[in-house]
Amino acid sequence: MSEQYQAYQIGKNDEGQRCVLTQLDDSDLMEGDVTIRVDYTTINYKDGLALTGRSPVIRKFPLTPGIDFSGRVIDSSHADFKAGDEVILNGFGVGEGHSGGFAQKARVSGDWLVHVPQGLNTRQAMAIGTAGYTAMLSVMALESHGVKPGDGDVLVTGASGGVGSVAVAILSKLGYRVVATTGRMNEKDFLTGLGAADVIDRAGFAERARPLAKELWAAAIDVAGGNTLANVLSQLKYGGAAAICGLAESMNLPTSVAPFILRGISMYGIDSVMAPIAKRKMAWQRLASDLDLTMLDELSFDLDFNELPQAAEDILDGKIRGRAVVKVP
Fold it and tell me: Which of 64, 58, 67 is nearest to 17 (CA)?
């Protein structure tokens, strides 16, 4: 018997794109071998672009947005999942080309899912969410490069946001001395509470970068791109590395090859959308062990399901601090 459920749905006509909260039924669920009752979702930068239509994120209409969610399996024909399992979904085009987490139910491929690791519940999983999972992938990239706490300061740009705030917390717990940048210096206490040793204004990274600047950072995690990233690269110490996971400032990178060939630095692109399952499982296991879960209350706040459209505007305008966790009714 078909069951109705509540969902946001984005449609498109000659007048443009429009998002409405509506009632759907099981016939509206997309293809997949696992059906999930969604417990929690979040609002990410990409979700903001999708809901507002500021960027052509949605590739198929009509579609339910929401690039991540956690919940419990209702029905499964996938070998790795059974009814009652708690699961996490990040990426794989969900919320872009396949209906996502802004709904009471979702149906997806089991190949896209990860079990909620021991030590986490479904709310904590979304307090971490795609942003925290991306932060951990970034930390893992720096570790694979060989960056150690004794090598020097690690810079985190956009530290007041979802990725940056979790990155600060993880790196601090692992023993790194973290310097955080933000455009909201009123958030200094928040960032030092997460473990940042120092907080600096992002305005210092806005000018066009010189090919080489003073060596300041052993490594960096960057969510900004643009002039910010160009300046960060010019300031990396010899043999340093930057994990690149965002473009909040710009997709452009106005830099030169100088820091790469004269200081031997490396730049790692972090893809959270199509990362293989083995890497995802490792990242989520690391989050369960290497993130101080008592900090999740500082890192996250509750957002009402009905407030998602306004939150989409707010996250694009830089008004959201940390992680917005949405309990799906």
Answer: 58
Residue 125 lies in a domain: no
Residues 157, 239 within the same domain:
yes
- Look at phi and psi of residue 225 and say left if phi exceeds 0, alpha if psi is from -120 to 50, else beta: left
Return the bridge partners of 17, or none.
Answer: 12
CATH number for the domain including 145? Answer: 3.40.50.720
- The domain of 246 spans 130-269
Residues 6+ apart with CB under 8 A from 147: 154, 218, 219, 240, 241
Whole-number percent of the chain with pLDDT over 90: 91
pLDDT over 80 at 230, yes or no: yes
For residues 109 and 235, state if they share a domain. Answer: no
Residue type, 25: D
pLDDT in the model for residue 1: 64
Report whether 135 contacts 163 (CB < 8 A).
yes
End-to-end CA distance of the chain: 21
H helices, E strands: number in the chain: 9, 15
